[in-house]
Amino acid sequence: MKKCPMCGKTCAEDNMECLFIDNDGTEYYVCAECDEATTSVIEYDDESEVALEYVKNCLAICSNQSLIQWMNGIIDSYLDEKKEREENYMSYTAQNLSKNENVILKGSINMIAMFPNAIIAALILFIFIYTGVETEIGFITFLGLVIAAIIIGIKYLKMKTTELSLTNKKIIGKVGIISTKVMDSPLNKINNISVEQGLGGKIFGYGKIVITTAAGNYNFSCISQPNVFRSAVMNQIDVFDEERIRKQAEQLAGAMKQH
Fold first, then answer.
1. 43-52 — which CB contacts under 8 Å span 24+ positions?
2. Which end of the chain is more exposed for a tag (fewer CB within 10 A), N or C?
3. Which residues of 112-133 are buried (b: 16+ CB within 10 A; e: fewer)?
4. Cα torsion for 50, 19, 71, 54, to the nearest 10°?
5. What is the largest CA-CA distance in the chain?
6. Are residues 194 and 149 in contact, defined by beta-carbon separation less than 8 angstroms?
7. Which of 66, 106, 68, 83 has its CA nearest to residue 229?
8. How far does Cα 63 stand from its chain's mean position?
9. 127-141, pLDDT tens digit by residue?
10. pLDDT, tens digit, 9 for 90 and up, residues 52-110
11. Phi then psi for 72, rounded to 5 degrees?
């Protein structure tokens, strides 16, 4: 039996794993649990956040300075990669927030809106498979599969690239895959906001939000609870106008006092 220098647990020597080899050739063995957690942090997998907390807790009681120094290097690399990934995947809304601006509500996408496209894709696939069986031509079946995948894929990408947010100052939005249309309109520039819902949208709680500004119309499809978002926008416009009027009154009162 040996004691793991990282977590302090005692385990069979056969269950110890070589974590790393120092510059002078010294091999550092740890228990399988510590080895697995460290590997998770290094590889930045789905369990890396949990593994990182485990590693940090172990290092708090570890007395081997070489091991602590090596593990701190691993943790620093992990945090650098995490920061880089967060910057790369920062949402359009986060990139366009100004000073003292906060997100009040985000228009989430309802994936159930893909259901009609999935039905169409399934019907096309069924027809092509049936035709392929009748004619014994595998290419027709394959073509049906490709078309079905394209129908679902395009709809999915459109939904995933749609973004709509209400802040305390404006509405920020983005739609489109290759050709994108972006919106960054102050609340006092919003002329109208309406909701369009079909039967499926009314049943499953999604719809299209149409926002009209002086620059044109902006359509955001497949938004969950669109009427809730519309109400939040209308309420925030009132708050925004009241705040703007209050500031103007304060500025006017200040100017009158100076005279």
1. 44/78, 44/81, 44/82, 48/78, 52/78
2. C
3. bbbeebeeebeebbeebbeebe
4. 20
5. 93
6. no
7. 106
8. 39
9. 777 765 555 556 667
10. 888 888 888 887 888 888 888 888 888 887 777 655 556 788 888 888 888 899 888 88
11. -65, -35
Cβ-based neighbour number of residue 143 at 10 Å: 15
Locate all alpha helices (DSSP H) within the chain, ordered by sequence: 32-43, 48-61, 65-88, 92-95, 115-135, 138-160, 199-204, 226-258
Q: Is 95 left (phi over 0), alpha (psi -120 to 50) or beta?
A: alpha
Token reading at 95: 């990139």
| Domain boundaries along the sequence of the chain | 2-88, 91-108+162-259, 110-160
CA 28 to mean position of chain CA atoms: 39
- Non-local (6+) Cβ contacts of 82 within 8 A are 44
Pair of tokens at residue 153: 């894929």
Measured between alpha carbons, how far is residue 152 from residues 119, 126, 199, 204 in Å?
10, 15, 21, 19
> 86: which 2 tokens?
């967060």
* Strand partners of residue 69: none
Identity at 61, one-letter amino acid code: I
Mean pLDDT calculated for residue range 34-46: 80
Q: For all residues of the chain together, what is the average pLDDT?
A: 83
Strand-pair category, 170-175 with 216-224: unpaired
Domain 91-108+162-259 has CATH 2.60.40: no
> Is the pTM value of this prediction over 0.70?
no
Q: What angle do CA 222, 201, 221 make, to 5 degrees?
A: 20
- What backbone phi and psi angles, to 5 degrees, belong to 2? -130, 155
How many Å apart are CA 194 and CA 210, to the nearest integer? 5
